[in-house]
């Protein structure tokens, strides 16, 4: 993806014309019967697509006019332009485009075409999802605004397969609606946040297409290779120029034919039939034999490709590299590299910046992965990188994602080191300055120039000179170098670019080089992530693989030599650290010469600001000499001051230097026709520069100033012919060219080599060099128009500056100070008031990085007036909490309802099992009792009989004894014999009983009791009884085990349903699980939460917040009252009792 965010401020009708103007009739062919103009998608705040449908042209125009296509209700009333104000932005657009060679591959192969369509749609889907999660709006009055995430985002995607000329150009106009739903109503999208997100969005879209597995696989089947960084198809890239050149020809002819038709048919609109006829004429113009025969222009373009030499059998394919998988990448390495790039690029950054770098680094590894995998990887890498960041804002300040408030320890360390190096150069006492008056008068220096020249010519270790554009810095330096040389002090100039250094060398006659070249010679190296290291002599140079031996003779600095840093405002901190270290080691002095009002460093800057602040003494050259008109010179001074941009615009208007235009195309047309050779054209972006360059070149070809018969293609995809002005973009000493050096093409050779002559160098004899075809294709492009970085330092006869919403104050100032005779401002606006508003807005933009202090102030300013805990946050937080509560309550209710059945099933199963065990125990018990009874009954009967016999024998013995005591003398002998007989009988019976039963009945206990005891003992020892009673014991043990197991099962189910902690509490309080009641309770909680959400949604945000605050206060009061009652009850429980000590003397014990 290329290009940035563009805000469209026209009406729905204008939008239809805008989209259809970029559509060829070939697109109509591909759409077939589909009448949808655009694909509409609505997403919620979590990235989920809620609605996706195609819109007819009328519905699309209504959406642009803020009519919701889902409900046909108004989403607000757009502000119309007028009273010096622009109209409301209706949508923000980014273009998801494919490089030309990839579009060519799609034209050649239907399979590639289908795969590319899916890859681009996947990229759009990922961007939509990301935007819905990160887009914000602002809610609340000024001074108390909240940055609030959107709850609904609407987007449009308008797909085109070709350019307006019909050449292959796959792109999707992705449009983001500027009306979003948040905090209960339609609100304005925060487009300022969107502009800070565009880098991350572009990186994401590029990554999805480059890593698309299906697209890569299809290209590979056709012998084609996708470059993951450029997105180009390597084998077809050389044909880009053919397509672009022919496309420009057809487009130019088509525009002319349409203009002629509209002039001949005033008030009418070009319809499809007329459009098709005009397109065919545009194709046939100058090439009647090549007129396409069908509506599928892609067929004709394939023929063009074959005529240009395309042959699939002879394509040279580079060595194929196995694609990487995300699992092969170290996410920590990607995170570290992303943080390195953030630190190299600025003093502070946003979360989106981190994500952009992480995404680009991942893409550079040539991975193949699905969009969801890319999303997850980038999220993790971003989070890891941010863990090593910290905020420069105060802890209580809001930190929106789009505000640059993050930095790292590396940034702090580097700036601290830089400040220490600067401070070390500040002398305790300012040295004297040499007398430069004679040389100053001879050169015509003004007072400011003279003071600056004396300072630079002195031995002061650090001199800071600031000069306005056109103040004569070069003339001043000439005097300073001359005077320093007379005092035996050598001088050399270093500049941000080699081109600027070469100009300084030619004009000042002293050694000059780029700052990068000087520090590189002294061993400093830096990688693609902006990490700097230094080689020591003897180390291996990673760039060349050779041993580094130290700086070459020409790069060595002499003690006391003055190193003059030209355009010092463009010096970044890392380069400044290297330069100041090198000069300190050599004992050289430094003079920083620049202008903080002009362009700043690309990266972490603020070097000139820190030097001026620490040095405490700056030599300012405010008198301007460049301009022929003194009145305009005074305007540029006020422009540099920046205090009243509105008055500056009014003065520019009074001087006749402001041109109003109806459209961007009108600007280009006007400049192409009115621009004179040698005049500078300053634009905002490389894409705009390409468009202006193409239009100027067309005009020069038409005037015969450029030969369009034999051309080559530059790095911008535009043709280059003899007579064109081009710019080289890479230093190459072997062919003698420098970055941003301008050349006039003298001849295009057969092999694509360019013979070029140096332009605007000031030399009497301009150099001529030969540019190889490979260098031209990669590092040279047209240079009629350039960004501010391309024109800074140039002095020309006249200039044209085209401001847009992306230009900064420095860009306007640089562009408007290039021309000696005239400097025109071209503004696309409907009125002078609207143009004034745009100019003021541009002059109030300052995108320069000026160090941590400035970054902190900007971050604080960005969040000033924002609050973190406002009404919206309060309501949204409570709403989110209630939503989560509802989800949990519904989950719990479903769980408890399911648990009710589970508990019931468990209870029933356990009851059945318990009944079975009870039956088993009863049966075993009955059997054991029966066997014991059977055994004991028989034994007891025998034992009782034996015992009774013994009782009777003992009774007989007693009777015998009684009779013997009562017998008379003559009968005693007989009685004695009876006693002996009875006694013998007793003994025999006892002996027999003892032998039989082990014991005889006692005289003191009944025989029945003895018999029962004997029976029991015999039963206890009986095998059948023992077996039966063991069976009974086993059965009862089994029942106990089952009871214990069932208790464990009940506890396990309770833990599953309620959780371990709650189950433990339930056991402690003897609470029985009741999932039915718990489910009902959860349903009531969910219903109550829904009621509260409904109450919040029914009120405006401020009123809802007030209602919520009142409700929380009431709840607090109720909680405190309940707590007070509980504490009172606790005190009463802890009071004296009847059984306890009576602490109140003289009173009886109390009890509850």
Which strand order spans the largest sheet, edge to edge or round the barrel?
1-4-8-7-2-3
Secondary structure class reads alpha/beta
Radius of gyration, taken over Cα atoms and rounded to an integer in Å: 49 Å
Q: How confident overall, as mean pLDDT?
A: 88
Report how far the terminal alpha carbons are from each other: 82 Å
Q: Residue ranges: pLDDT <50 for 5 or more in a row?
A: 24-36, 288-296, 1139-1152
Number of helices, counting only DSSP H or I runs of 4 residues or more: 37
Helix content: 40-55%
> What composes the largest sheet?
6 strands, antiparallel
What descriptive keywords fit this protein?
1152 residues; 37 helices; 6-stranded antiparallel β-sheet; elongated; alpha/beta
Can you characterise this structure?
- With 1152 residues, the protein is α/β, with parallel strands linked by helices.
- Helix content is 52%, strand content 13%.
- The protein has 37 helices and 32 strands.
- The strands form nine sheets. The chain has a six-stranded antiparallel beta sheet. A six-stranded parallel beta sheet has the order 15-14-18-19-13-20, with helices on both faces. Strands 21-32-31-22-30 form a five-stranded parallel beta sheet, with helices on both faces.
- The two termini are 82 Å apart.
- Mean pLDDT is 88; it is low at 24-36, 288-296 and 1139-1152.
